[in-house]
Structures are given as structure tokens and as C-alpha cells.
Amino acid sequence: MRMKMKGADTMNITDVRVRKVAKEGKMKAVVSITIDEEFVVHDIKVIEGEKGLFIAMPSRKATDGEYRDIAHPINSGTRDMIQKLILGKYQEMLDAEPAEAVEAAE
């Protein structure tokens, strides 16, 4: 998926890797995205909230106890695009699971 960036050509997310979290809880998956086959962002989390699934960008706990994103989109349009792409890949992974379980049982 290509996105327009200010003062530049476009940014292309060239790879999305989703790792499902095995344990129960609100965190459902951990994702890595590759941008333009040159820059990777790891540890984007897929979280199940009260209003449905959303992504949480990688963060670190600061000395004041608050969590701060260490990598994140600058505007909501870019965040929405990344979230839509990641949640789409997550859903594809979930949709593929029953077929894989049936194939393994045969």
C-alpha cells in the first residue's frame, strides 16, 4: 500500500508480519511492518478494546511511570491507513486458521 508523504514521493508498506499471541488477554497479536523494504517497525500490538480491535504503537515506560510511543505516525490519516492494513492482515490470519487445522487433521 502506497501513501503520499509531505515533500517526498510516497511511502510503501512492503511487508506486514503478524504473530498471534497464544495467551488469553486483550493483546491479540504483535506485528512488524516494513516500509519501502528499508525500515522496520517492530512490536506494534493488536489490542481488543471495548469498541473493537485497534493498534498500539511500540512504547517504553518512562521514569515517571507513563508509557510513551517510541515510533508512531505523525497524523491520523497515516495511523488509520496503517491500522486498516494491520487489522486486515490479522483478520486474514484468523480466517486461514480453521483451514489449516482441518488440513493438519487429515
UniProtKB/TrEMBL annotation:
Keywords: Cell cycle, Cell division, Septation. GO terms for biological process: division septum assembly; sporulation resulting in formation of a cellular spore. InterPro entries: SpoVG, SpoVG_sf. It comes from the Bacteria. Belongs to the SpoVG family. Could be involved in septation. This is Putative septation protein SpoVG. It comes from Blautia obeum A2-162. The gene is spoVG.
